[in-house]
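Quick illustration, no need to memorize.
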Amino acid sequence: MYHYIYDSFIGERRFRRQLAAIEHKLTELGIVGERERVTPIRTVEEIMKLGLARHAKTIVVFGNDYTFTKALNAGLAAGMDPTETVLAIIPFGEPNYIAKRLGLRGEAVSVQELAARKTATIDVGRVNKRFFITTVDVGFEAEHKTRREQVLEKISAFTAQHRIKKYKPQAVKILIDNQYLVTSPLFNLTVVNLNNEPDDLQRADHREKKLRLTVVPYSEQIINQASLVARREYGRLANASIFWAQEIKIAGPKTVKIATDGVLYDMLPLRIEMIPKAAKVIVGKGRAF
């Protein structure tokens, strides 16, 4: 049994032709099920829980990264069992980094992969009580994710320099696997599960069940590497340190900005860990893991 979650923006005129074509293809392939739409009084989380209550074998999200992560969080919080329920996404709108990392590049490809039912059981990260697929950003990167449209923002080195000058670092304490303590005035910290930057240096080590942690202490010399900051290549900065960890604890002022899967959530302190084999998802040939 299939259960479909349509985010509210799917009803916009710009998506009508795409949506009609996708729904026609799904009907042709016999992939039918209950269709539930998000409204001001019906949230993604409520519809996700409804699908689990109906014992849906496959729950398909029509939407973007935000839609998918909301559904994932609601499912895992409700005890979604990866041996019983598969989660899928038909990507609409932006951002859709997660769909791309799963190998689902576009609606038509996603429908074909859904029909083929190629699945993978993935590790997810947990930050305090929330789950995440891609990254947790603390500090500079999170400062510029206060509005949705800024997640996809591409900036120049000149803009990066301007923002670096305005940035006010704050001291944080980072405890890695209860063994290694880092105390630093922080510029940026990124914890990676599935990286949403395909050209970056490293990923999490899923064989060892470890997240990738990049820590960049604040330095006045960072402004001379603004082009790397503009491209979000924090691991290439001269004073960056990279660790692999099963558990990361971060403490500091509550005013430090934190973004989970590209959206502002939570405040310090944080406890971050990897949850192995937490969810089963539909994947495509070009998946990044």
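The radius of gyration is 19 Å.
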